[in-house]
Amino acid sequence: MFDFSIITNWIHGLLTSFLPLGLATFVECVVIGGCLLLLYTIIAIVMIFMERKVCAAFQCRLGPVRVGPWGTLQVFGDVFKMLTKEIITIRHADKFLYNLAPYIVILASLLAFACLPFNRGMEVLDFNVGVFFMMAASSIGVVGILLAGWSSNNKYSLIGAMRSGAQMISYELSIGLSILTIVVLTDTMQFSEIVERQADGWFIFKGHLPALIAFVIYLIAGNAEVNRGPFDLPEAESELTAGYHTEYSGMHFGLFYVAEFVNLFIISGVAATIFLGGWMPLHIPGWEGFNTVMDYIPGFVWFFGKAFFVVLLLMWIKWTFPRLRIDQILTLEWKYLVPIGLVNLLLMVIVVVFNLHF
C-alpha cells in the first residue's frame, strides 16, 4: 500500500530548502486548500450526475442523455446557468444574515470534508480527536440553515428551517452513538488509526453484531442528517415550496444545493472509513495471496469505491420510500434509534471488556 506521506514530506523538504519555515507552511496550506476546493467541486458534479442517473433508473427513465456523451455535460451547463443567474435580495430580509447563511453551510461542509482520509498519507486534518472535530464542524451547518430561514422574512422558509434544525440536531445524537460504538472498539478517535486497525478485517465484519447495528443506525441517521428522502420534510415542495432556501436565487441557492450533495458524500465517506475500512484493502486472515493482490489496488480507489457504494445505498433509500411526516421522523429518532443506539453501545462495551471481538 503506497504511502502518500513520502511525497508530501519530499515537497515539504523542497519548500523549506529555499523558503522560511513559516512561509513554506503558508504555501502548503494554500495549495492544500486549493486542492480541497477542486476535489469538493468535482465530487459535487459527480454526485449531481449520479443522482440524476440513479433516480432515472429507479423510475424507468434514461436521465440526461442529450448534452454531451451520455449526458455528462448537462451538469456543467447547469453550473454555468447558475453562475449567470441574478442573485435577488428580498426587500425586508436581514441582508447580512441572508447573505452569510449559504457560506456558513459551505464552510461547515468543507471542514468536515477535510477530515476524510482519502489514502494513507493523504489526511488533511488528522489528529487524535479527529472524530470529535468532524462532528463539531459538521454541526455548524445547522446554524446556516436556521439563519437562512429566519433572515428570509418568509414563513415557509422559517418553518422549513425549524424543521431542519429539529431534525438535524436530533439525528446527530444517533450518528454520535453509532460512531462512539466504533470508538469504543478501537480506543481511538483518530481517523487514520481507525483505518489502520482494520488491516486484518473491516469492522463491519469483525465488530460482531454491535458494529452491524451501528452501521444500520448510522445509515438511517446520516440520511436524515443531510435532509435526504424520505427525511426531506425541510424541503417538502408540496407544503413549503423549497423550505429554508425558498427565497434564494442564483449561486446563493447553488451553494445550498452543492453542500447538500457533498454532505451526502461526507456521510458516506465517514461510513466507509469507520465501518468498511476506508482506504484499507480487503484482507482475509490466512489468504496471503489474495491479500497481496488486493494491496496492488491503490488506497484512494478503495476509499472512493466504498464511499460511492454507500452513496448508492442512500440514493436507493431516497427513491424507494415515501416521505415521512415530521412527527414520524422525530418519533423514529427519539423512541427507537436513540434507545437502540444506547443499548448497542453498552453491548459493544461488553464485547470489548470481555474480549469477544475478532
TrEMBL record:
Q: Mind listing the UniProt keywords for this protein, alphabetically?
A: Membrane, Transmembrane, Transmembrane helix
Which GO terms of type biological process are on file?
aerobic respiration
Listed GO CC annotations: membrane
- Molecular function terms in GO for this entry? NADH dehydrogenase activity
Q: Which InterPro entries match?
A: NADH_UbQ_OxRdtase_su1/FPO, NADH_UbQ_OxRdtase_su1_CS
Q: How is it placed in the membrane, per its record?
A: Multi-pass membrane protein
Where exactly are the transmembrane stretches of this chain? 23-49, 96-119, 131-150, 171-191, 203-221, 255-276, 296-316, 336-356
What are the subcellular locations of this protein?
Answer: Membrane
Main localisation, per the record? membrane
The record's listing under PROSITE patterns reads: COMPLEX1_ND1_2
NCBIfam families assigned to the protein according to its UniProt record, in alphabetical order? PRK06076.1-2 (NF004741)
Q: What is this protein called?
A: Respiratory-chain NADH dehydrogenase, subunit 1
Origin species: human gut metagenome
Phylogenetic classification of the source organism: unclassified sequences, metagenomes, organismal metagenomes
